[in-house]
Amino acid sequence: MTITESLTLMLALLYAASQLWWAGKHYGAVVALASIVGALAIAASTTLLLGTVVAAGGLAVFHWRKPTWAKGEVRINQLRDGFQHLLFLALLLVALQYTLNTIMLKAGMTPWLARPNVVDAFLPIAGGIELKGISAGIWDQNHPAAAVMLAVVLLTGLICKRAFCGWACPIGLVGEKLYKLRKRFIKEELMPPRWLDWPLRMLKYLLLAAFIYLVCFSMPDAAIPGYLNGNYHKIADVKMALFFITPGLITLSVFALLLLIVTWRRQGFCRYLCPYGAILGLLSFISPLKIRRNSEHCLIESRGMKCDKCTRACPANIIVHTKTTVRSDECQACMRCVAACPKKQALGFGVSKSHSLSARTVMLLTLSLLFVLPLAAYLSGFWDSQTPELIRMQLIQMANHIGH
Ligand code: SF4
Ligand code: SF4
């Protein structure tokens, strides 16, 4: 595990432990801290220890300065935005480290910066093939983090709906920024008509079906070891990076279309095209956590007032104020509707209308799901790529000639 990964991981876990402590859950905080210490002892890694020390120092400074997001009461939208921006920043550092590592390998130098394995999260098809391989007893050694990160994202969908989309996804964040930029110049909401919205939403399920076909049906179990040990898979991350940094005309046209969609429609990519959004949307039907409206407290039923603030706040255009439970596959558990509701206890995200989670709990749950499994995978030796650096260096030189 590299220093960027170690720092992000330990920052997340120590922050979670500190939040448990501040929330009065001292037993939970002690268990979390003991687990971190145990993990450090098992890993015996200088990088992980360094990441822990720096993270602990950083958190101590934040608690000392007492910014609202670190301690005490904080608004839902502020908390979610802060969390998403911090994750995005961590990802930028990872991208920088990965780029430097690859440039050095391409130049034939021994890199002084290690390759962050978390970049394998951008190899969902490889991750799917690896998970299929694991079910047949085949464990990939080249990009194990791809399988781990795919499992992590799926797990978040099962447990806390599309909270990954609403709280963590970097693409969703970029889309939101581009949409807001467009709104500064063109104020109107350019919504597609209802009859067109539904078929467009189904596009992401078609893409998901194509991915599932590629992973589950196009490759028989017997072919998996050959694929996982092949040269293409060994540098699948580099092939993916090359696809983005040296785009052809068709790729550029697709990028332009995507840009148009995310600026035209809020969450346009998530809503219409993202296959991750599709699979998380399907899993979200099983998730016990849902947005629930309590009519005993809602202004509509309890006071006979007209109110639709929750609906107007929803970026996914879900009609919240007439439902008791939001089951929509488009709900990203962002809790903007809860933040907009003027009546406490009228709206919440939880397993029942009387048991709602606070925004901080949703954040800690998402944080734990995102980081605990990668830590466990690292401790069990299924995180770091075992592809020798020399092999990677040689393959990168001929990356353009390596195909499936
Ligand atoms: S219903 Fe609420 S939590 Fe779901 S997407 Fe809309 S605003 Fe976010
Ligand atoms: S914003 Fe709150 S009070 Fe208003 S309709 Fe929605 S749930 Fe009811």
From TrEMBL:
<feature type="domain" description="4Fe-4S ferredoxin-type">
    <location>
        <begin position="322"/>
        <end position="352"/>
    </location>
</feature>
<dbReference type="InterPro" id="IPR052378">
    <property type="entry name" value="NosR_regulator"/>
</dbReference>
<keyword id="KW-0472">Membrane</keyword>
<feature type="transmembrane region" description="Helical">
    <location>
        <begin position="7"/>
        <end position="24"/>
    </location>
</feature>
<dbReference type="Pfam" id="PF13237">
    <property type="entry name" value="Fer4_10"/>
</dbReference>
<feature type="transmembrane region" description="Helical">
    <location>
        <begin position="205"/>
        <end position="228"/>
    </location>
</feature>
<protein>
    <submittedName>
        <fullName>4Fe-4S ferredoxin</fullName>
    </submittedName>
</protein>
<dbReference type="InterPro" id="IPR017900">
    <property type="entry name" value="4Fe4S_Fe_S_CS"/>
</dbReference>
<keyword id="KW-1003">Cell membrane</keyword>
<dbReference type="Pfam" id="PF12801">
    <property type="entry name" value="Fer4_5"/>
</dbReference>
<keyword id="KW-0479">Metal-binding</keyword>
<keyword id="KW-0408">Iron</keyword>
<keyword id="KW-0411">Iron-sulfur</keyword>
<feature type="transmembrane region" description="Helical">
    <location>
        <begin position="30"/>
        <end position="62"/>
    </location>
</feature>
<keyword id="KW-0812">Transmembrane</keyword>
<dbReference type="GO" id="GO:0051536">
    <property type="term" value="F:iron-sulfur cluster binding"/>
</dbReference>
<dbReference type="GO" id="GO:0005886">
    <property type="term" value="C:plasma membrane"/>
</dbReference>
<dbReference type="InterPro" id="IPR017896">
    <property type="entry name" value="4Fe4S_Fe-S-bd"/>
</dbReference>
<feature type="transmembrane region" description="Helical">
    <location>
        <begin position="269"/>
        <end position="287"/>
    </location>
</feature>
<dbReference type="GO" id="GO:0046872">
    <property type="term" value="F:metal ion binding"/>
</dbReference>
<feature type="transmembrane region" description="Helical">
    <location>
        <begin position="145"/>
        <end position="174"/>
    </location>
</feature>
<keyword id="KW-1133">Transmembrane helix</keyword>
<feature type="transmembrane region" description="Helical">
    <location>
        <begin position="362"/>
        <end position="383"/>
    </location>
</feature>
<feature type="transmembrane region" description="Helical">
    <location>
        <begin position="240"/>
        <end position="262"/>
    </location>
</feature>
<feature type="transmembrane region" description="Helical">
    <location>
        <begin position="83"/>
        <end position="100"/>
    </location>
</feature>
